[in-house]
Amino acid sequence: MKTFKLGGVHPPENKLSEKAPIEVLPLPSVVSIPLSQHLGAPASPVVAKGDKVKAGQLIAKGAGFISANIHSSASGTVAKIDDMPDSSGYRKKSIVINVEGDEWEEGIDLGSELIRECSLNPQEITAKVNEKGIVGMGGATFPSHVKLMVPPGKKAEVLIINGVECEPYLTSDHRLMLEKADEMLVGITIQMKALGVSKAIIGIENNKPDAIAHLKNKVKDYPGISVEALKVKYPQGGEKQLIKALINREVPSGKLPIEVGAVVHNVGTAFAVYEAVQKNKPLVERVVTVTGKNLKKPSNFLARIGTPVSALIEAAGGLPTDTGKVVNGGPMMGKAITSLEVPVTKGTSGILIFPEREAARKPVQNCIRCARCLNVCPMGLEPYLLSVLADRKRLEDCEAERIMDCIECGSCLYICPSGRPLLDQIRVGKAEVGNMIRKRSQH
Amino acid sequence: MSLLTVSGSPHVHDSQSVSKIMYGVVYSLIPAMLVSFYFFGLAAILLTLTAVISCMAVEYVIQKYLMKGPVTVFDGSAIITGILLAFNVPANLPLWMVVIGSAVAIGMGKMTFGGLGKNPFNPALVGRVFLMISFPVHMTNYPKPTAFSTQLTDIVTGPTPLAIMKESLQKGESVAEIIPQIPQYAQLFLGHMGGSMGEISAIAILLGGLFMAYKKLITWHIPVAYLGTVLAFTGIFWLIDPGYHFNPLYHLLSGGLMLGAVYMATDMVTSPMSPLGMLIFGIGCGVLTVVIRMFGAYPEGVAFSILIMNAFVPLINRGIKPKRFGEEVKNG
What we know:
- The complex is a heterodimer.
- By secondary structure, chain A is of the alpha/beta class.
- A six-stranded mixed sheet of chain A has the order 1-14-13-17-15-16. Chain A has a four-stranded antiparallel sheet with strand order 2-8-7-4, with no helix packed on it. In chain A, strands 11-10-9-12 form a four-stranded parallel sheet, sandwiched between helices.
- Chain A contains 14 helices and 17 strands.
- Chain B is built from 16 helices and two strands.
- In chain B, helix 5 (95-108) crosses helix 6 (123-134), helix 12 runs parallel beside helix 15 (275-295) and helix 15 packs antiparallel against helix 16.
- In chain B, strands 1-2 form a two-stranded antiparallel ribbon.
- Chain B is globular and about 80 Å long.
- At the A-B interface, strand 15, strand 16, helix 9, helix 13 and helix 14 of A face helix 1 of B.
């Protein structure tokens, strides 16, 4: 079975919610919609305090090429546009809407009927994806329309669809593949058309045999799309690792996948593209896994963007009394949140609740030079060395040792028997080296 | 609910820990320890206990009273140093010498550099070499293995097979004349030969090595490169002149090579990080060992070879980088 070659770890999978069908979460009384839910420039608001808005209505416009439109996820009144806490731990400018109902903007098809034919041309598809605010749903939230435009001089050969879900605990993509397979496959067909490719491969890890079987059966009706089962190994969902696993090509250091003729989109993104193009529906809701070992009812919810995390936890049986940490995202790359009132955003794939005893890290001990970090690094780096160089501010050396190649997957910190803060120091080093490179290019 | 913990990702961690790794190595040493207890009796048990207890005591005193920092004597690393030091000396070595060796191994070999993980040289070998230079007579007077004995004094002693080989060759005897004076392959393999306490039984050491490999405490690179180099290097000489040079298998099974290749050279703290670096390290150890055995003044060169190669580890780590992702672009 295929997988990527270099490094990787296999943490306990703990897919507690894989059997829980997607449930529609009731509308909250207030939604808080951050203007920066994507990589790139924050969107700029086009509504003001006191305005009445409908669900699906544009409330903030993407500012620049790498940015994304933002739409209201409910109907109601704009209560304020202000700095609100979000999952990054900082206060970010957000549009707060008092929910008064669920009245949708006209022209949005809310029916469940499958529409297979798409008459739009590639430019129109990309424009639609842009207009509806679609971003990468796997967590990186890169604006999708940018990835559908092949830069001049490059050629896309294959569309790779990421159904790996290599993060432990998370099951939102898994459920989506089981429950919305046709919609997703139409979405993939549309993306193929936009990119001008005739081939798409859906990569799924082997711990989801039901999804693999279901999609293998479904793709018979969709020419050009195939399904590939992959050996379970983290971080297979990393763009570069997935390309390596599926088509055995290595994206060179500092380059994008298009360099090797590949474009990678998440299964959730394919579904969002379907809804945007075929149903005219903007990205205002997403599937969120709410899970944890002591949670009463690990679930997968279809939640509106802006819904407070506390509402999701309540619907999953309430916060367990021994909770020590709440994470937005998966256990390997997710962010620990500081408040349960932060909203669900376009990139929220899961809410993970850790009991007190799993919340703290191991005590830090001396590095025993066991080389485990080096062996698990999927980019072939030397985390033990980078962390020391970063800690001592030897930025030129960090750059020479290719610190910027680090994808922050966390495998090194996961495996370290001494509990050393490898990735923490490397992150700081990356930020500083990034600044250094930017300064250099300005001169 | 109390406050939420906030920390950087990842939020889950492997269950492996420093002390689990160290105790894994300790457990893997049990077969070799039992063999030496069988052949050298009570003396071997006393020697091992003395070495382990003095290593831990020295580490405790230094951490508590000199460094005034956290005391980590129970993380298992001092126990390993103690056992390996005992393995590397003759079983009848006076116990006070073992105490001195332990003090040097832990004090000079490990704590001087800042403790666990910071020492460039294998501490047990530092202790062994110190003893060898300080007490050359005691350190080359090896007891002959006998089935379990409780004697502590008046043990029959004699030279190791390697010492017999070297001396006899220098006297001008041929291999055919020497062979009857030294143990057979099967005896070497099981441990019935003169030598340091823990180096005698190849099979027990290999068992321990396999256990460590299974538990992912070592990788194959260093032992295979080390043993393979010795095999190839001595094999070439043997093919050229089998009348003057010994069968490579004899080199493989005698002396401290097996112990060195499986336990001393694979010490993670003092060996290279990358697989290719480990291979270079192993080959270097092998070449030096054969050179010392064949052309040096000492009959055995494992300890020196490993210590010399330890000194090259920072250089190897600097020069040999792991294969980076995206480096070798073979697209198609």
